[in-house]
Amino acid sequence: MSSAKTSSADKQRTKRASRETPSFVPDLVYFEPDALHYPKGQQIMTWVKQHGIEYLMTSSHNRIMNLPGEGELEKYRMAKRTLVVGIRKTLTFDQSKPSAEYAIPIGTGCIGHCHYCYLQTTLGSKPYIRVYVNTDDIWNAAKQYIEERKPELTRFEASCTSDPLSLEHITGNLSDLIVRMADEEFGKLRFVTKYHHVEPLLQLTHQKRTDVRFSINADYVIKNFEPGTSRFEERIQAAGKIARAGYPLGFIIAPIYWYEGWEAGYTQLLERLAKELPEEATWDLSFELIQHRFTKTAKSVIEKRYPKSKLIMNEDERKYKWGRWGQGKYVYPDEQAKLLKSFISERIYHHFPTARILYFT
Fold first, then answer.
1. How many CA within 13 A on the CB side of residue 310?
2. Which residue, 2, 88, 254, 347, has fewest beta-carbon neighbours within 10 Å?
3. Do the strands 28-31 and 82-86 form a parallel or antiparallel pair, or are they unpaired?
């Protein structure tokens, strides 16, 4: 009897494992020649060869013009399966308000296919994934920012232009930053992810100097607008592991999207979160709330790349809001935005009375 039960349990575990969202393996890798002068570049080359992945050399990522594929859609999908290994030459960091003072650049581009993502326009005609191997140079630049701002705390956001956890098994860049930041009294690291592959981070010395945040959303949004990402359940299980490893834990609910039934969707989201998180993960939670927004340029690009998307981008139903760089975006009208904010905030505090809502934007 015991043997039969064990066999059944093993089958269930095998079935669950077979459904796990796999780690990213690119179809094609480009190396800039100088990248191979760095240990990390050589490490990635070894990984590429071990996996039998096709690779090419390029003098610069800007010269990658003719990716395989016929038509814009096929070329776009191939670009999202292409990795470029190179050098980060610009070591002046962009600002990253409101989540941090600066964006720390360890990669660019994302493996996911989130229809609403601002990277659709930020990366323009170069949606391939880039990772940087001159991590000592990047870290030295971060150290300089920390020194200049002492005794003020300097926070660095590692996920402004990519999801670094999705590439960690290839680069190790995130682990490098976490370990280095552990010794910085006046520095902190932050990153957000839609992926669950947290194992490389669990044994690191971090001294609580890295905030780990998971992007979550109502089922409707994840299923319709976030292909190529880890499932909600996988993200929450990973959040539990991160909490048990002692990292400060937070969640970003973004984009908060107004659709028929949104109240029930976001109610269920927070009920599931409260039910599935381990107790130690709920002690000091933070939340960041970001409503859906889009620009005219983004709308045009999204409609070309995801022509069957259900994402509603009707300018007539939105409020036009000027951005800090002089470019406007469409957000929800004030009345809708206030209702989204109050509704979701009330349910966060109901399930997590000690949680902190850092901002709504």
1. 12
2. 2
3. parallel
25-193: what CATH class? alpha beta
Residues 25-84: tens digit of each pLDDT: 999 999 999 999 999 999 999 999 999 999 999 866 665 656 666 677 888 888 899 999
Cβ(155)–Cβ(101) under 8 Å?
A: yes
Which tens digit of pLDDT belongs to each residue from 144-162? 999 999 999 999 999 998 9
pTM for this entry? 0.89
Strand (E) or helix (H) holding 290: strand 286-291
| Residue appearing with tokens 């490098």 | 176
Domain positions in the chain: 25-193
Burial of 217 (0-12, 13-18, 19+ CB in 10 A): buried
Residue ranges of alpha helices (H) inside 150-231 are: 168-171, 173-181, 219-225
Q: Which residue is listed with tokens 């935005």?
A: 337
Q: CA 170 → CA 55, 131, 229, distances in Å?
A: 15, 9, 17
- Burial level of 269, CB count in 10 A (0-12/13-18/19+)? buried
Output the six-digit token pair for 50. 């071990």
Residue 190: strand, helix, or coil: strand
